[in-house]
Amino acid sequence: GLCGLAFLIEDGMLSWSAIHLEDTLGATPFVGSLGPGALAASMVTGRALTQWLSERASDRTLVTGAGAIGSVGAMLAAFAPTTLVALIGVAVTGAAISACAPLIFGVAGRSAGPGRQGQSIARVTTLAYLGFVVGPPLVGGIAGLTDLRLGIAAMAGVSLLLGLGARLLPARDGRPSP
After folding, report:
1. Burial class (CB within 10 angstroms; exposed 0-12, middle 13-18, buried 19+) of 74
2. Positive or negative, the Cα torsion across 109, 156, 74, 64?
3. What pLDDT sits at residue 114?
4. What angle is formed at CA 53 by the lines to CA 50 and CA 54, rounded to 5 degrees?
5. Phi, psi values for residue 131, rounded to 5°
6. pLDDT tens digit sequence for 64-77
7. Sign of CA dihedral 102, 106, 112, 114
């Protein structure tokens, strides 16, 4: 479920950032196209740094931090006064959330019994991809009922849920939090 929340945020921001930049903030199509590009570039960078970060902090701490920072980034993108501020918010969200999938896949592999790591990771991946399916229509549905700023802001709420849900991840000693 946690990985599904991360994927929901990733695809919600990816699918709607260009439209938000253009329709809400009046950007040109070229500048609008920088939204998904900024998200993807920051995610590549974040995923590349995940291993290094995981050697310095627990999975639980990293996913909690990712949720908090991702929420700040999504709020910044949602309520940005300019396209530059919105692009920074999109990039911050991508960089933060990018660490979640590799960390959660790692937990799934380590938590599985001997010889069952692949099966465990496959299950997590399959469930997580539901987030990709839900993210864009969630943002669009909220935007249709209210406006796109609130649709993007919903990603901040989901990001907070992700960070809070990190307590479900096993601690370094392998036990989940009470």
Report:
1. buried
2. negative
3. 85
4. 85
5. -60, -40
6. 999 999 999 999 99
7. positive
| Beta carbons of 2 and 168 less than 8 angstroms apart | yes
Distance of alpha carbon 57 from alpha carbon 18, whole angstroms:
34
pLDDT at position 108:
87
Provide the whole-model pTM.
Answer: 0.90
What's the Cα-to-Cα distance from 138 to each of 15, 124, 167, rounded to whole Å?
Answer: 11, 21, 25
**Residue 176 phi, psi dihedral angles, 5° rounding:** -70, 160
Q: Which residues pair with 176 in a beta bridge?
A: 170
Predicted confidence (pLDDT) per residue in 82-115, tens digit: 999 999 999 999 999 999 999 998 888 888 888 8
Rounded distance between C-alpha atoms, residue 61 and residue 69, angstroms: 12
Residue 1 tokens, joined: 């479920």
Residue ranges in the chain whose pLDDT is less than 50: 173-178
Structure tokens given for 120: 């465990």
